[in-house]
Amino acid sequence: MKNPTPPWWRKKKAIEKNMSEPSQHDMKNHSTASHATPKGRARPFRGLALALLVGLTSTLFACSTFKEKEFKSDTLDLKYQESTVLGSETKSLPLDHPLEIAEKTMREHLLSLVYEELHLLSKKKYLFSEEDAGEVARILTKALRRAPPHKVIQFTVKTKKGDTVGKLFASQKKLHWIFSRINGLRYSNNPNPSASYGRVMTNWKMIPQAGQSYHRNQKLLGKFTREDWIASHLRLPGLARSGLKKKKSTQAPAAKAPSGKSRTGEKKEPAPDKPASSQENPEFEEKLKFLKQLHDKKLIDDDEYEKKKKELMDEFF
Questions:
Q1: At CA 236, angle to CA 231 and CA 242, rounded to 5?
Q2: Are 224 and 88 in contact (CB under 8 A)?
Q3: Could you list the mean pLDDT of each consecutive 10-residue stretch along the chain, which spans 317 residues?
Q4: Domain map of the chain by residue range?
Q5: Which residues are registered as beta bridge partners of 175?
Q6: Per-residue pLDDT at 223
Q7: How far is the C-alpha of 174 from the C-alpha of 192, rounded, in Å?
Q8: How far apart are CA 77 and CA 64, in angstroms?
């Protein structure tokens, strides 16, 4: 007996079931495709590896170039630094690098730098000796001639008193000298001395000479003077080291008249003694005021105050 023909609704249900379930051939193709790696999927990883390789190569190249631009000796260390280490102060100071400058001119600049320690009985001193200036001038001259347009020079001069650390760059026909340490003493922009463990901390400032000036920064409340920053014209007026030396007179001394008589033979009354004014000795008044501040702040006792005051009086009078 033949199987009866299934009704039409059973045929429709069987067809829908076959369409919803994938065949074994389709399952095999799907599993093979899921394990296979498309060609386009490897490209992002390949690009990432290439970027890492390029970055590593550029970093190694930069490090090797930086080391080549360093100079070290027993008396001087020198290297280039990005101008950004100076902060926003260099925005108005475009660098004139490289700069063609003579070694003789650089030596004159080094010999003209003067500083003063801000403590009692301090005197103005030259920053570099003639021996140090001769050796440092040769290296700094070469460094300025080869300086990149966007970098400044950092140098450390090693002396018996201590290291002198500073930065040098050229801008607007001037040489800019910025010092952070002189003979081992750090710079502090605090004008009032502070006590640390019972000792008065020392401070110093640069002293501008002819053709030199302090650098002034524009702040919100006005201009701020940097006493550790000297801007020096490329062509200094006069000879170096002429500011602190007393000029010797080349004229013959005039003949002295007898005491109590003038050259005409008339008797001359002695002039009354004039008290020394503060205008004649402004340095004395400033140091005396500084000494009094130390005494008022109880940084020195009465005996020390009277002793230093007597030494100060003996020096100026």
A1: 110
A2: no
A3: 57 62 54 48 59 59 50 93 84 90 95 90 89 92 94 94 95 95 84 45 84 82 84 81 48 47 48 44 75 81 83 71
A4: 67-233, 283-316
A5: 170, 232
A6: 74
A7: 31
A8: 18
Asked whether 150 and 73 are in contact (CB, 8 A), the reply is: no
Cα separation, 62 vs 34, whole angstroms: 45
- For the chain, list the strands marked E by DSSP: 71-72, 76-82, 114-117, 124-126, 151-158, 163-171, 174-182, 185-186, 195-196, 199-200, 204-207, 212-219, 222-233
Strands of 204-207's sheet in order across: 124-126, 114-117, 204-207
Alpha carbon 250 to its chain centroid, in Å, reads: 43
Helix (H) or strand (E) holding 104: helix 103-112
**pLDDT digit string, tens, across residues 24-59:** 555 555 555 444 445 445 455 566 666 666 566 555
**Is residue 135 within 8 Å of residue 119, measured between CB atoms?**
no
Whether 133 contacts 110, CB under 8 Å: yes
Q: Could you give the CA distance from residue 95 to residue 167 in angstroms, rounded to a whole number?
A: 13
Burial of 310 (0-12, 13-18, 19+ CB in 10 A): exposed
3-state DSSP call for residue 268?
coil
Phi, psi angles (nearest 5°) of residue 16: -65, -35
Is the CB of residue 162 less than 8 Å from the CB of residue 95?
Answer: no
Give the distance from CA 19 to its chain's centroid.
81
d(CA 126, CA 159): 14
Helices and strands counted in the chain (H then E) = 7, 13
pLDDT digits (tens, 9 = 90+) for 78-89: 999 999 988 877
Cα–Cα distance for residue pair 225/190, rounded to 1 Å: 12
State how far the Cα of 19 lies from the Cα of 82, in Å rounded to an integer.
Answer: 72
Task: Identify which of 78, 198, 225 has the alpha carbon closest to the alpha carbon of residue 137.
Answer: 78
Residue 252: its pLDDT value, please? 45
